Amino acid sequence: DTEVTQTPKHLVMGMTNKKSLKCEQHMGHRAMYWYKQKAKKPPELMFVYSYEKLSINESVPSRFSPECPNSSLLNLHLHALQPEDSALYLCASSLTSGRANEQFFGPGTRLTVL
Amino acid sequence: DQQVKQNSPSLSVQEGRISILNCDYTNSMFDYFLWYKKYPAEGPTFLISISSIKDKNEDGRFTVFLNKSAKHLSLHIVPSQPGDSAVYFCAASGTGANSKLTFGKGITLSVRP
Question: What is the mean pLDDT of residues A29-54?
């Protein structure tokens, strides 16, 4: 199994809703990442988990809350989002979080905040 | 400050010809470089990488060249195929505080049949 899966593919939510994005990999990777990508822009790193511990938080607003229940799963809990948070949210994984590790990306969740 | 630059936003080539996608970087701490390909509404797909101890890495139709003194790398696709039409991102990483991937803005490649 060499893929990263993400659910849901699309999500529309209001500013008062609470929702979660899910990501799963079964490649034995110990690093997992959340990225945000706006149209015609490169992926922007949000969080890095290494061995199930949060190692990098790129000053992301607290309305985004990551969770890593185990080495294969990564969640992103969303609450009180703003319309400008609408974007493609990408999950990625790599063998470790050090350099020289290719990151494998999931297909993303297209999030629209109304 | 953009540490990875892909200065051309787009490139159009004829099927069967060579596509050359360029990337420049400014951070001398970067020592590992990757190319990703992205179709619309999909996540980026890893294509090829190169370590700073090499100046060339080849994988099938894809070859990446690294010129450390110029802080420049390029991706060559030969022969180009219509299915190669996508956005290509150059990314770089280093050690310690630079270990996260830093992406360029991407270049849209169109391969004309």
Answer: 93
